[in-house]
Structure prediction request, 291 residues.
Amino acid sequence: MTMAAALCKSGLVAATVALALPDARAASPPAETRATIYYSISMVGVPIGQITWAIDLSPRAYQASASGKASGALSILVNGEGRVATQGTIDGEAVAPTFFSSNVTDDGETTGLQMTFENGSVKTLRADEPTDKSKRIPVRDEDKMHVTDPLSAMLIAAPEGEPPLSPARCERTLPVFDGQRRYDLILSFKRMDRIKLDRGYAGPVLVCAVVLRPIAGYRPDSVLVKYVGGRPGMEIWFMPIAGTPIIAPGRLKMPTGIGTLEIEADKIDWTMARPMAPAPTGPQAPGRQPQ
Prediction:
C-alpha cells in the first residue's frame, strides 16, 4: 500500500508541509501553525483526483488529517474517497504516533477503523472487518509491532544540528501499518532537485527512491501489488518545514505497468493552529469488529 492508495483506498497519503512564503529562505513559521496542502492526483498526465492534507505542528507534537477522492477511467490504482487522521509526539528524530483513524468509501462500501499506539507498536485496534478477509494474507501480532501509520511515516525528522535535506534522511525503511495492511516503504537517496508550487514553496527538495514491500493484510492478486509491489522507479520528493527539523513530501511519482501515477502539491496555506487536544485513550465507533 502506497501513500496514494493509503489515502484514497485505506486512509494514507503522503503529505507536504512547506513555507507559505515565496522563498525557502524566508522567515520561519510560528511555533504552532497549521499548514493546509492541496494536492492533485494524475495518471499518465490525466487528472483523476484531489487530496487535502492539514497538519498542526508544534516543537514536540503534531496532529494531521487528510481527505481525498479519486475516480475516472484511469483511476484503477486509487478509486474511492476517504479521510484519515493521526496525532503523536516529536522527540529528536523520533516521530511517533499515538492515535490513528480512517474512514474510507470504496465501490460503495464504507469501512472505518481506529487504533492507538504505545512505544511504537499498536496497543488497541477496532476496525470494520473487510468483506474479503479470507482472501487476504493474515496479519500477525508481530506485524503490529514497531510500526507507524501512513501519515506519520511521511514526517521525517533530522537529528539536532543536522540539515533536514541531508541524503541520510533517505536511508531508512518505513514500517507502515494502516489498520488493515502491513507494508514497508524502503527509501534510498536518489538526488537533489528543486520544486516550485503555485503558492507556498519554491526551493530545494530531497528526492528518495522508494520500493514498496507488501507484508500482510493484502490480497495476493490485488492490482496494487501486481503493478507496484517490489518495482523500482517510485520517488518521493521531500521539502523542509521551515524552522523545524521536519521534512515532508511534496511530490510522489509512481511508475506502474499501466502508466505513471503522480501526486503533486499545488499550493500551501498557513493559519494559526488550535491548541492540540490529547489523543483518545482507545478506539471508539465506527469500528464493529475488534482485531
Q: What stands out?
A: The longest strand covers residues 182-196. The helical segments are 3-8, 223-227.
